[in-house]
Design brief:
By secondary structure, the chain is α+β, with helices and mostly antiparallel strands. Among the domains are: about 190 residues, 2-Layer Sandwich (Nucleotidyltransferase, domain 5), CATH 3.30.420; about 80 residues, Actin, Chain A, domain 4 (Alpha-Beta Complex), CATH 3.90.640; about 140 residues, Substrate Binding Domain Of DNAk, Chain A, domain 1 (Sandwich), CATH 2.60.34. Helix content is about 25%, strand content about 25%. The chain has eleven helices and 31 strands. Strands 1, 2, 3, 6, 10 and 11 form a six-stranded mixed beta sheet that branches. Strands 21, 22, 28, 29, 30 and 31 form a six-stranded antiparallel beta sheet that branches. A five-stranded mixed beta sheet has the order 14-13-12-17-18, sandwiched between helices. Helix 1 packs across helix 7, helix 3 crosses helix 4 and helix 6 packs across helix 7. The longest helix has 20 residues. The protein is globular.
Length: about 625
């Protein structure tokens, strides 16, 4: 059954959003709309917001009055998700699950184990990062399914074309865990899309046909995404292949745990120092309240440039803490000194982030950025990380080797503040001049109109473009890929059986495309460790899916092998006849599916062909 809706979901570190359009309507009526998300904002108060704070609160027996957490679709939810979760979590952080998305990408912990809230007391029930992410996605699914006119099975979110975004810096395991979270949440048709690409698609949607006058072949677009919890940097190159505009992600920065939350905490710390200097005691509970209020005050000051200060009020918790209500204020000068100069300082392109001195013992937890200067992380990205990217050869570089973008696209809630965008452009332009290039002008700053919802909107637009109803920026495989097939020949002492190369991805195969190896079966070893060998060629562009090569000489190079155990109940070391299906995902991953003769079993092998290394 064809999907009626295309739905883009931004599962954010701090906020999540959802946008959709009618997949069956004519183009002029198929507008992308941001979805409203009903949620608890206070006990006994449900309100609709366009953002769902990515916070999950695990209530205790006496946290809320009985019946005060009722939702339109659930009278007694066991978990609180959204705005009320964030508010109550500021008061009881031991029961708050935050930054689940960052935990999902943190390989130093077991991401499928119940570890969140991190370091919470034993009496607090815990969830895994996968389960927490699944809860957010399940909440969004329930909101959609409860919407007006969506009570019919064919309109349920599980039956729609869902585009779920992930950071470009996610490794394959984090992406696979994201897929698993979506499956657990009841999603049947999910495509993962990288957030920088989604942000770029949102910009395309906002431009209409005017985008053709803004970017051209040879341009290099820097996507600067600073959200509530993370900073993600990417470079996208615009090129031409056979007369079509193509977009290629050529460099991806680290998943940097640095964002608006850090900025709000820095402001709260300054106010804490002032209050304590005047004789008030601020404990952990009060600091979290201060943190929450600083976020609101910061946003109000950025929204109203003429306003010079915003009041901050702390409610006391008895004589041992403060003894009553106290008041202070957050001034615009605080934003200038702490946020602009502290997080976006003017630095030289060679001034890289500082590394903290390592203490012998430290708490286990998320690897937060040691240096809060976003501009220093940008300098490192454009110098060291881009230089080490295997895909960045040939991009525009300056005298010192610094990668020099021709355009910049901002994304993320933090970059809503014009003063912060202006500072990033100012710093980047100083580097460009030093490297021998002209500074970026207004036409080269690609401002999306709605930074908080851009990723969700862009994901929905990409869903339209896949169906031929939008500008699809195509990206095909830059090499031909093969898997190794061991020849069926008698054993010869001291010699391995010859290896044949089976073409599974021809040169230029588009991301999102699928192929079936025609009229052939192969033997698949299951039940014990086996080595799967992948090969590629940059010169053989004539081979098609299913071509089996016996002698390829130096035209084909072998990649690192992949050793895995494919399981089949009751079978060990068995050779199972299978047919092969291949797919290049939108994330640049080659999936080789091995399908048993009776279609009862399917096994998947994956290779990240963008980086040309196995995962």
């Amino acid at each position: 059954m064809a999907a009626k809706y295309i739905v883009g979901i931004d599962l954010g570190t701090t906020n999540s959003a959802m946008a959709s359009c009618d997949a069956t309507a004519v183009d002029e009526e198929s507008r992308i709309e941001v979805c409203g998300i009903p949620q608890l904002v206070n006990p006994n108060e449900v309100a609709e917001r366009t953002l769902l704070p990515s916070f999950l609160y695990i209530p205790g027996d006496f946290d809320f009055p009985k019946g005060s957490l009722a939702l339109p679709w659930e009278p007694e939810p066991k978990l609180v998700i959204g705005e009320l979760a964030r508010k109550r979590g500021a008061e009881s952080p031991n029961r708050l699950v935050a930054s689940a998305k960052s935990w999902l990408s943190y390989a130093a912990v077991d991401r499928t184990a119940p570890i969140l809230p991190w370091q919470a007391p034993e009496e607090v029930p815990k969830l895994s990062p996968v389960e927490a992410s699944s809860q957010f996605l399940q909440y969004l699914r329930t909101v959609w399914d409860s919407g007006e006119g969506r009570d019919q099975p064919e309109r349920a979110l599980a039956e729609q074309d869902v585009l779920l975004t992930v950071p470009a810096s996610f490794d394959e395991e984090a992406r696979e865990l994201t897929r698993r979270a979506a499956e657990q949440a009841g999603y049947h048709h999910v495509t993962l899309l990288e957030e920088p690409q989604a942000a770029f698609y949102a910009w395309l949607e906002s431009q209409g046909d005017a985008w053709r006058r803004r970017i051209k072949v040879g341009d290099l677009v820097l996507v600067c995404d600073v959200g509530g919890g993370t900073t993600d940097l990417s470079l996208i190159m615009v090129s031409d292949e056979n007369g079509e505009l193509t977009l290629k992600r050529v460099a991806v920065g680290d998943h940097i745990l640095l964002g608006g939350d850090n900025m709000d905490l820095a402001l709260a710390r300054i106010l804490q120092q002032r209050l304590e200097a005047s004789g008030n005691r601020i404990d952990t509970w009060s600091l979290h309240s201060l943190w929450h209020q600083c976020r609101i005050a910061k946003e109000k000051l950025f929204e109203s440039p003429r306003t010079q200060n915003r009041p901050i009020t702390l409610l006391g918790k008895g004589t041992k803490l403060i003894g009553g209500t106290i008041k202070t204020e957050l001034a615009r000068e605080d934003l200038n000194q702490i946020l602009i100069e502290g997080f976006f300082p003017k630095v030289a392109s060679g001034e890289l982030p500082a590394r903290q001195r390592r203490v012998g013992f430290q708490e286990l937890g998320l690897p937060y950025a040691a240096d809060p200067a976003v501009t220093k992380h940008l300098a490192r990205f454009l110098s060291e990380q881009v230089r080490n990217s295997p895909e960045a050869a040939g991009i525009r570089r300056g005298r010192s080797g610094l990668a020099c973008p021709t355009h910049i696209l901002f994304n993320g809630g933090v970059m809503k503040a014009a003063v912060l965008r202006d500072r990033v452009v100012e710093v980047l332009n100083s580097w460009l001049r030093q490297e021998g290039f002209d500074a970026l002008g207004a036409e080269q700053i690609l401002e999306a109109p709605d930074l908080e919802h851009a990723v969700a909107r862009g994901a929905a637009y990409y869903g339209k473009a896949r169906g031929g109803r939008g500008v699809r920026i195509r990206s095909g495989a830059s090499r031909t890929y093969y898997i190794g097939i061991e020849s069926a020949m008698p054993a010869v002492p001291g010699m391995e059986a010859p290896l044949k190369a089976l073409c599974v991805v021809p040169f230029g195969m588009e991301e999102g495309a699928e192929a079936t190896i025609p009229n052939r079966e192969f033997g698949l070893i299951v039940g014990e460790p086996a080595e799967f060998r992948f090969l590629s060629s940059s010169v053989r562009k004539q081979d098609q899916v299913g071509s089996l090569l016996e002698d390829w000489g130096t035209d084909i190079e072998e990649l690192s092998p992949l050793e895995v155990t494919l399981k089949l109940d009751g079978q060990q070391g068995t050779v199972v006849p299978v047919r092969l299906e291949t797919r290049v995902t939108e994330l640049g991953t080659l999936e080789v599916w091995c399908v048993s003769r009776n279609d009862t079993q399917r096994w998947k092998l994956e290779l990240n062909i963008r980086e040309k290394t196995t995962q």
